[in-house]
Amino acid sequence: MRARTTLLLLAAAAQVVATAGAVALKASGWELTANRHEIRLSSRPRPRCPDCKGEGGWWSEGPYPGGELCWC
Asked: Judging by beta carbons within 10 Å of its beta carbon (0-12, 13-18, 19+), is residue 56 exposed, middle or buried?
């Protein structure tokens, strides 16, 4: 009986920690992506960035055009 109670408490604690982590990531500028092969934590562009206006980057002009990332 004690083992079952301990396992239930551990499972509940893990769920609370996962929920708190998800809320913290949602409130900050980070995005968590997980799949079978990797867990990736990457930054999201700021919606009110004056440089990229929330798009995360822009296309450069000139003889070799390409995408450039914003540092926001």
From this structure: middle
Q: Residue-wise pLDDT tens for the chain (72 aa)?
A: 687 888 777 777 777 777 877 777 777 778 888 888 888 888 778 788 888 888 888 888 877 778 888 877
Using CA atoms, how far apart are residues 59 and 51, in angstroms rounded to an integer? 12
- The H or E element spanning position 5 is helix 2-27
Rounded to whole angstroms, the Cα distance separating 63 from 52 reads 22
pTM of the model: 0.42
